[in-house]
Amino acid sequence: MKAFQDLISTDYGIMSLIGILMMVGGLAYAYVVLRRKMAETSDEPGK
């Protein structure tokens, strides 16, 4: 419980939380973009 309190109440904890959220957001964005790219169909062979 002390670790969670440090995470949400200290300056370094809040910065860590922001970093974690940014990484998760970046992964979610990359997942969506890559899924769309993989789902695209190409009419030209070899592309």
Verbal overview:
With 47 residues, this protein is mainly α. The protein has one domain (1-43). Helices cover 79% and strands 0% of the residues. It is built from two helices and no strands. The protein has helices spanning 2-9, 11-39. Helix 1 packs across helix 2 (11-39). The longest helix is centred in the middle third of the chain and has 29 residues, at 11-39. The model has no long low-confidence stretch (mean pLDDT 92). InterPro entries: DUF3149. It holds the Pfam family DUF3149. This is DUF3149 domain-containing protein. The chain crosses the membrane at residues 12-34. Keywords: Membrane, Transmembrane, Transmembrane helix.
* Whole-number tally of structural domains: 1
Mean pLDDT: 92
Count of helical regions: 2
Distance between the termini: 53 Å
Amount of beta strand = under 5%
The biggest sheet amounts to: none
Classify the helix fraction into a percent range.
Answer: over 70%
Rg on CA atoms, Å:
19 Å
What overall form do the CA principal axes indicate?
rod-shaped
Succession of helices and strands: HH
Low-confidence stretches: none
Q: Could you give the count of β-strands?
A: 0
Strand pairing plus helix content: what structural class? Answer: mainly alpha
